[in-house]
Each structure stands twice: as structure tokens, then as C-alpha cells.
Amino acid sequence: KAGVTQTPRYLIKTRGQQVTLSCSPISGHRSVSWYQQTPGQGLQFLFEYFSETQRNKGNFPGRFSGRQFSNSRSEMNVSTLELGDSALYLCASSLGGAKETQYFGPGTRLLVL
Amino acid sequence: AQTVTQSQPEMSVQEAETVTLSCTYDTSESDYYLFWYKQPPSRQMILVIRQEAYKQQNATENRFSVNFQKAAKSFSLKISDSQLGDAAMYFCAYRINAGNMLTFGGGTRLMVKP
Fold first, then answer.
1. Alpha carbon distance B69, B4 (integer Å)
2. C-alpha distances in angstroms, B88 versus A33, B38, B91?
3. Under an 8 A CB cutoff, do A104 and B42 touch?
4. Cα separation of B39 and B91, whole Å?
5. Contacts of B102 in chain A (CB under 8 A)
6. Predicted local distance difference test score (pLDDT) of residue B92
7. Within 13 A of A1's CA, how many CA atoms are on the CB side?
8. Cβ neighbours of residue B27 under 8 Å, at least 6 residues apart?
9. What is the mean pLDDT of residues A23-30?
């Protein structure tokens, strides 16, 4: 099976712009979670989508949003970008059950200038 | 709130030797999962090993094993016969038995010396 894929892999934006990142889960996986990784804050959970519904949400401002499509692909959107949004954004997929393991994609590196 | 602490920012080990990475966590839950993930320079997070809290037996995966002490809320990773390819950041992570929200520790950078 193909692994989790994320596009684009690298992105440069300027303050105030918005950005959309995409994540395609492993075939058959219905849960997609998003994480932000920065040197200062480490790895932080953004949100999880399961069967097109947001199931869990981390402690991030409303500028961070996401959605999931019927084929389980997910997008996350960040509006009004700030310098502090520069980070590696990782998505992870799983079958969705409580016992299931999450498998991570290679990440999208976002730089905000 | 659950927290995960990795007290060793950096560790080094000689090739072929054994190293243990420490992790402690704080939770009031009784049913949860613990994980060790490896993040090499490529930044791809790779699952190393997982442990279900209800299982007393420590998990093992080839050269990787854990020492799970539930009462002490401790979850250390032992890497035996270290290889150059083991050099990476290692993250300890916690998840309750509901949903898919992982709480990560700050990570330990492991260096392997030839």
C-alpha cells in the first residue's frame, strides 16, 4: 500500500496570505490528524477528521481550519498567516478505531516571510 | 491535561552498544496507549513501538524494547545493538483510548558513533 502523501512538500508565503495543505491517507484509512511541529513548541495536535467530521480539536486559533472529503483526503487551511505559523505540518492517518496506530506523512514545510 | 516529558534532550551511543531513552507522562486515565516514534533527518515520523497500558508485558520489536512502569508513569525505550541508521530524533507519545490525539514529548536526539 502507498503511504500517507502530503502536498506540497515546501511552501513559502508572506504574512497575511492564506495557505491550503493537502493530505492523502493510506487507502482504507478514514481518520486523518494534523500536527504542527516547531522548534519552540514541539509537536502539537491541530485536529482530527473522521468520516468527514471533525472529531477532535487542539488548542489553535480559528485561523486554522480543516476539512475531509468523502474519499478521506483532508485539507487544512491557515488564513491570515503570521510569522509564527512557519512550521512543519504533519498529517497522520489511521483506520480510526481506538486501538489503531497512526502513520505519518512526510510533512509540508511552510515558511512565512 | 496529559503531559509527556523526555528529560534527555540528547544522547549518544557507540555503534553496537545499548542505549535507553527515558520518558515519563502524567495522566489520570487508566486506559491509554504509549508510543515511540523516530524522526530521521528526512522528518518522516516512523513508528518504532507501541504499548497498550492494560498489558503488563513490555512490548518488543526486534532490537527495540520498552520498560513500561504504569505505577511510576514511566515508559523508556531500549535500543540494543545500535546501528548508524538509528541516529534520529525520538519522540515519546501518549494517547487515550478514544480518538486519535497524540500528545508528544519534547524529543531526544540520538547520535550513534561509529
1. 14
2. 23, 6, 10
3. no
4. 8
5. 33, 35, 43, 45, 92, 102
6. 98
7. 10
8. B2, B73, B94, B96
9. 96
Interface of A with B in 9-48 (CB under 8 A): 31, 33, 35, 42-45, 48
Residue of B nearest to A88 (CA): B43
Residue B1: pLDDT over 90 = no
What pLDDT score was predicted for residue A96?
81
CA angle (B107 as vertex; B46, A62 as ends), nearest 5 = 85
Residue B56 pLDDT greater than 90, yes or no: no
**Partners of residue B42 in chain A, C-beta under 8 Å:** 106
pLDDT value of position B4 = 96
Residues of B in contact with A33 (CB under 8 A): 100-102
Out of A66-70, B26-30, B84-88, pick the least confident: B26-30
What pLDDT, on the 0 to 100 scale, is given for residue B102? 92
* Closest by Cβ to A48, choosing from B43, B45, B100: B100
